Amino acid sequence: MKIIIVDDNIEKTKRIVREITGKFPIARKDIATVSCANDARTLLENQQYELMILDLNLPLFIDDEDQKIQVTIDLINDMNNDQELNKPHHIVGLSEYEDMVQQAKEIFDDNLWALLKYDSESNDWINGITNCLKYLISDHNRNEAPSQVDICFITALAEPELSEVLNLPLNWGSSEPLDNTTFITRGTLETAKKKYSVIAVSASRMGMVSSSVLTAKIIGLLKPKFLVMAGICAGINGKVDLGDPILVTTSWDYQSGKRIFSNEKSDFLVSPHQIHIEEHIESRFRQMVQNSSLLFDIKKSWQGNAVAHELKLHTGPMASGSAVLADESVVKEIIRQERTLLGVEMEVYGFYYASRNSSNFRPITFAVKSVCDFADEQKNDGYQKYAAYTSARIIHRFFLDNIDDIDKM
After folding, report:
1. What per-residue string of b and e applies to 185-207 under the rule 16 or more CB within 10 Å gives b?
2. Quick one: residue 270, left, alpha or beta (phi over 0 = left, psi -120 to 50 = alpha)?
3. Does 136 or 168 have the greater pLDDT score?
4. Among 212, 209, 213, which residue's Cα sits nearest to residue 179?
5. How far apart are CA 190 and CA 178, in angstroms?
6. How far is CA 277 from CA 95, 139, 169, 356, 392, in A?
7. Can you tell me the distance from the alpha carbon of 252 to that of 232, in angstroms, rounded to the nearest whole number?
8. Helix, coil or strand: residue 1
9. Residue % of the chain over a pLDDT of 70
10. DSSP code of 52?
């Protein structure tokens, strides 16, 4: 287990290190210590840490005389939003100042992190850190248990999304009950080196709630090593074309925020919480973007109505919401939240959130959704089946080309 302590109080840092190495089987070399936010960023660029112990009152650089809570908040925001930084799995915040604890409370609560009041004359804060470590170690041990299935496909719709997944050449069996409300189909992915177990399942209805409930159930019962969502989305006209698959690198609920009444009119203050996929998945998809022959072959194998334009693969952000969109003005408002937006859909944020916050097993999770319309007044169902097809096929090819290497990680 790798731990990073970010604190400019040397004596406090020494005490934390003594407590950790004295009570847990964690080597000193696995505990990094830095005293400013800039040095923390440098380490986070190159290392994944299970736990960060973070002082709320930090200098930006080691030679700065002033410490500010805004420096710490900026560091937290960078960890949440900057894909170049490896976000720690859990963070424990520390401060001896009650006003700083209150300032940071909302951001720590939103991320399900611990926030402790430091007192040099008390052991409560150090007990809080050791209790957190006990949980993380037990959680890590649970995650070491072998998965019951290698790959799980989740879709929001039985038609056309799940049906296109079941058209993949994966030796599918018959549908079978997982429990009283969910049916799955089992299959096998075979590479030159190994056979991998696969299941496919569809949610009972569209939306983030249904997808997150199903995701939590699948993780709890089957512990898949890879959890992937296939399906369809609305694309941003001019950036993507109909049928183009998009790897969802970042997802958030574009309807999350606060509705206020100000200056005699109603207004909405956006407060998006973004979730990012793992870099090693994104980097492999970026290589696939350049593989024009692969995309040509996928399009050529399509058995439906002819599609005139070429097929392209994209990687980028996609927003989730609770309503089907057929209004360009709403899409323009969402683009204001993220200028590089590629698409809008209804499930991925709930899917990512349920996986990221799973307490007993965390699969490698990503979603690929293909464009079936542009969320405008011309919205129709004409490209849904083709989009479901390209989404399923690009995921299938990703696993054929990459699963043997990723499985060794």
Report:
1. bbbebeeeeeebbbbbbbbeebb
2. beta
3. 168
4. 213
5. 23
6. 31, 20, 27, 10, 18
7. 17
8. coil
9. 91
10. E
CA atoms within 13 A on the CB side of 281: 22
CA 399 to CA 406: how far, in whole Å? Answer: 9
DSSP 98-159: HHHHHHHHHHHHHTT-EEEE--TT-SHHHHHHHHHHHHHHHHHHHHTSPPSEEEEEEES-II
Environment class of residue 20 by beta-carbon count within 10 Å: exposed (0-12), middle (13-18) or buried (19+)? buried
What pLDDT was estimated at residue 66?
81
Q: At CA 402, angle to CA 399 and CA 404, rounded to 5?
A: 100
Residue that has been written with the tokens 């709403």 in this structure: 330
What are the backbone angles phi and psi of residue 254, rounded to the nearest 5°? -70, -10
Mean per-residue pLDDT for 32-53?
93
Tokens found for residue 299: 């399009």
Backbone angles phi, psi at 306, to 5 degrees: -60, 140
What is the spatial distance between Cα 78 and Cα 335, in angstroms, rounded to a whole number?
A: 21
Give the position of tokens 């249904």.
Answer: 210
Judged against a pLDDT cut of 80, whether residue 140 lies above it is answered with: no
Q: What is the amino acid identity at position 110?
A: D
Q: How confident is the model at residue 256 (pLDDT cuts 50, 70, 90)?
A: confident
CB 154 within 8 A of CB 208: no
User: What integer best gives the mean pLDDT of the chain?
Assistant: 88
How far apart (Å, rounded) are the C-alpha atoms in residues 373 and 284?
26
What value does the mean pLDDT take over residues 325-343? 77
- Is-contact 34 43, C-beta < 8 A? yes
Which tens digit of pLDDT belongs to each residue from 62-121?
988 888 899 999 999 998 888 788 888 889 999 888 888 888 888 887 777 888 889 888
Whole-prediction pTM value?
0.66
Query: Residue 398: how many CB atoms within 10 A of its CB?
Result: 21
Q: CB under 8 Å to 210, separation ≥6 — which residues?
A: 156, 203, 204, 347, 350
CB-CB neighbours of 264 under 10 Å: 5
Residues 274 and 253: beta-carbon distance below 8 Å? no
Q: When comparing pLDDT for 265 and 347, which is higher?
A: 347
Which residue in 223, 209, 36, 206 sits closest to 147, CA to CA?
Answer: 223
